[in-house]
Amino acid sequence: QAQDAAAGEKVFAQCRACHQIGPTAKNAVGPQLNGVIGRHSGSVEGYNYSPANKNSGLTWDEATFREYIKDPRAKVPGTKMVYAGLKDEQRINDLVAYLKSFDAS
Ligand code: HEM
């Protein structure tokens, strides 16, 4: 299935309440998400993670991220991210394309 970053930007509206992305992104309620696909969990400097996220040992490769975003509290029990989850595979595809368009900075 195609991944559409422009459609993913619209999906990211749900995340923007808590996360920033892009050249001027700062940590907010949640950590900034530049380069998140491929990033080690709990690794953004200056962000105060929960122990659950910090110590999860996960790397946000595409497969792991997809599982996480479907049901964050199932994948990381004890996470302080309050988000019910995104179930629709096409919307997840598009979201991943959008996230991948921002390198770590
Ligand atoms: C953590 C993605 C929505 C608040 C994270 C992490 C990812 C992520 C990948 C782990 C980051 C890391 O380990 O560095 C997303 C995406 C969202 C979304 C793609 C939308 C689909 C939200 C929303 C909120 C939120 C709506 C607030 C209501 C947080 C918080 C953490 C977090 C507080 C830190 C968790 C902890 O330390 O336990 N998010 N998130 N996120 N997110 Fe989200």
Provide an overview of this structure:
With 105 residues, this protein is an all-alpha fold. Helix content is 34%, strand content 0%. The chain has helices at 5-11, 51-54, 62-70, 72-75, 89-100. The longest helix has 12 residues, at 89-100. The protein starts with a helix and ends in a 5-residue tail after the last helix. The mean pLDDT is 97. Protoporphyrin IX containing FE binds at residues 14-15, 17-19, 29-31, 36, 41-44, 49-50, 52-53, 60, 69, 79-83, 86.
Helix run count: 5
The CATH topology name reads: Cytochrome Bc1 Complex, Chain D, domain 2
- The percent of residues in helical segments reads 25-40%
Estimated share of beta-strand residues: under 5%
Give the CATH H-level superfamily.
Answer: Cytochrome c-like domain
- Based on the coordinates given, report the CATH architecture: Orthogonal Bundle
Structural class: mainly alpha
Q: Please indicate the count of domains.
A: 1
List keywords for this structure.
105 residues, mainly alpha, Cytochrome Bc1 Complex, Chain D, domain 2, 5 helices, 34% helix, binds protoporphyrin IX containing FE
